[in-house]
């Protein structure tokens, strides 16, 4: 016998999405501060629960799409935290991890028949928006360095490592996180709740996913960075600016200023 779906009105569907937000925060907090294994199990349970619930309820498509894109966050934590990464050379760890995130995003796009241009993956005014991204990233990178003060990864500054980090931070970290948070999650939240809530919501989650730094200032910084990423994407309609902004910010953070302030930059 076919079970009848449960119908949710807009108010109930809104609380369903809010519950997902709360569950993501709880899972990330437990993963970071209490027990990583329990956090991973919670992410697994949350992912399954989201898909089970949306298969049994009927609500507006905007809410369903929002729930499905939000399910990518616990999946992201699940895959990147529980796979046996120890067998990969450390210099390839970052692209390997972010390749998983990109694979999840492209899988989601394939399942939902989302075209690349619908999530901002297009070459319109490429140089113009890339230049804007560079300028903003040069301004925000020093701020995040002041917040985190990461140590230099190598004894001396070398151009080959700078170029490697530029590739990693732009085409893996920047592309992966911008596609997930802005291209997918922000778009779906905007379709369900409007522009302001959509941009604010994705920025909130983007900040929460940086909880693993265990720095309240970093949570605040990444929240405001998420707002800037989201506004830039919304204004330009392309992820070019946010991806380049993200990549340059991170390169300044980990590949330039740690060497400069430790006297290692010749």
Output the keywords.
single chain; 266 residues; mainly alpha; two-stranded parallel sheet; 10 helices; 2 strands
Radius of gyration: 19 Å
What is the rounded distance between the termini? 74 Å
**What is the overall shape?**
globular
Total of DSSP H or I helical runs spanning 4+ residues? 10
Q: Would you identify the regions where 5 or more consecutive residues have pLDDT less than 50?
A: none
Q: What is the percentage of strand-forming residues?
A: under 5%
Helix percent reads: over 70%
Largest sheet: 2 strands, parallel
Q: Pairing-aware structural class of the strands and helices?
A: mainly alpha
In which order are the strands of the major sheet placed? Answer: 1-2
Query: How many β strands by DSSP?
Result: 2
Mean pLDDT: 93
List the secondary-structure elements in sequence, H or E: EHHEHHHHHHHH
Description:
This protein has about 270 residues and is mainly α. It is about 75% helix and about 0% strand. The protein contains 10 helices and 2 strands. The chain has a two-stranded parallel sheet with strand order 1-2. Helix 6 packs antiparallel against helix 9. It starts with 5 loop residues before the first strand and ends in a 6-residue tail after the last helix.
């Amino acid at each position: 016998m076919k079970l009848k779906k449960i119908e949710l009105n807009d108010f109930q569907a809104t609380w369903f999405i809010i519950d997902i937000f709360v569950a993501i925060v709880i899972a990330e907090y437990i993963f970071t501060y209490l027990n990583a294994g329990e956090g991973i199990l919670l992410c697994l349970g949350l992912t399954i629960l989201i898909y089970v619930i949306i298969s049994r309820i009927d609500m507006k498509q905007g809410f369903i799409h929002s729930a499905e894109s939000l399910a990518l966050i616990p999946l992201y934590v699940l895959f990147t935290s529980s796979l046996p990464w120890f067998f990969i050379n450390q210099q390839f760890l970052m692209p390997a991890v972010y390749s998983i995130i990109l694979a999840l995003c492209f899988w989601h796009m394939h399942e939902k028949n989302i075209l690349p241009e619908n999530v901002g993956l297009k070459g319109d005014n490429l140089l113009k928006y890339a230049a804007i991204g560079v300028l903003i990233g040069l301004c925000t990178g020093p701020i995040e360095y002041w917040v985190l003060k990461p140590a230099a990864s190598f004894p001396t500054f070398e151009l080959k490592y700078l170029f490697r980090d530029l590739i990693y931070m732009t085409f893996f970290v920047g592309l992966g996180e911008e596609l997930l948070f802005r291209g997918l999650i922000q778009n779906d939240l905007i379709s369900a709740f409007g522009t302001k809530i959509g941009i604010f919501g994705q920025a909130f989650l983007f900040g929460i996913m940086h909880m693993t730094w265990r720095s309240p200032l970093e949570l605040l910084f990444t929240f405001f960075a998420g707002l800037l990423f989201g506004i830039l994407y919304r204004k330009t309609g392309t992820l070019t600016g946010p991806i380049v902004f993200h990549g340059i910010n991170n390169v300044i953070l980990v590949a330039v200023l740690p060497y400069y302030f430790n006297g290692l930059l010749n």
